[in-house]
């Protein structure tokens, strides 16, 4: 059975006008039909992906915000880290945890917050060097105590003695070196 009439239609995919052979034809060609079906599949899969992403982003876990104690997984979510990282922080002593059983480890929320506090800044007092008349330079100290250069620097380092440089020479206080070599005097 053939029809003796013509129907002008607009293609759903490309929007061009075409002459349809039947009254239910929606596409101008097989290529437009394939493209349209592929687009529908893509849109439906993207919609499901977008819904999954929205669910993850919209989840406000009240345990993370208001809980006094957190398990390892919640602490990892809060810090956006892995469980292994939380266990590492526990092992090195930056976080304290309590093992209630083999599978249940709890952390105190305030300990996690304390990770982000800045340590207090310690103001160092500026050491004023003693007058040069009361100091040995390195050459004089070697001659007076009859030791090598390396031994002298090792003694200064080991005993944490204050040394300073003035011009070409490095000086150490006589009282400090005398205290190391003659502790009774």
Spell out the blueprint of helices and strands:
Blueprint: E1 7-10, E2 17-20, H1 30-58, H2 62-66, E3 69-71, H3 72-79, H4 83-91, E4 97-101, E5 104-108, H5 109-114, E6 135-137, H6 138-145, H7 149-158, E7 163-166, E8 169-173, H8 174-181
Antiparallel strand pairs: 1-2, 3-5, 4-5, 6-8, 7-8
Structural description of this entry:
- This protein is α+β, with helices and mostly antiparallel strands.
- It has 8 helices and 8 strands, in the order ββααβααββαβααββα.
- It has a 3-stranded antiparallel sheet. Strands 6-8-7 form a 3-stranded antiparallel sheet. Strands 1-2 form a two-stranded antiparallel sheet.
- Strand 4 (97-101) and strand 5 (104-108) form a beta hairpin.
- Helix 3 crosses helix 4.
- The radius of gyration is 40 Å and the shape is elongated.
């Amino acid at each position: 059975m053939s029809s003796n009439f013509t129907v002008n239609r607009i293609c759903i995919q490309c929007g061009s006008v075409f002459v349809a052979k039947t009254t239910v034809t929606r596409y101008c060609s097989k290529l437009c039909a394939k493209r349209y079906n592929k687009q529908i599949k893509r849109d439906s899969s993207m919609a499901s992906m977008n819904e999954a992403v929205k669910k993850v982003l919209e989840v406000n876990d009240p345990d993370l915000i208001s809980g006094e104690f957190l398990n390892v997984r919640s602490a990892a979510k809060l810090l956006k880290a892995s469980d292994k990282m939380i266990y590492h922080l526990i092992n090195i002593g930056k976080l304290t945890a309590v093992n209630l059983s083999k599978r249940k480890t709890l952390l105190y929320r305030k300990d996690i917050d304390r990770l982000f506090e800045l340590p207090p800044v310690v103001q160092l007092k500026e050491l004023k060097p003693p007058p040069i008349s009361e100091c040995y330079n390195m050459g004089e100290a070697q001659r007076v105590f009859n030791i090598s250069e390396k031994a002298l620097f090792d003694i200064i380092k080991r005993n944490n003695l204050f040394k300073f440089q003035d011009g070409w020479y490095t000086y150490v206080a006589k009282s400090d070196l005398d205290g190391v070599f003659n502790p009774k005097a």
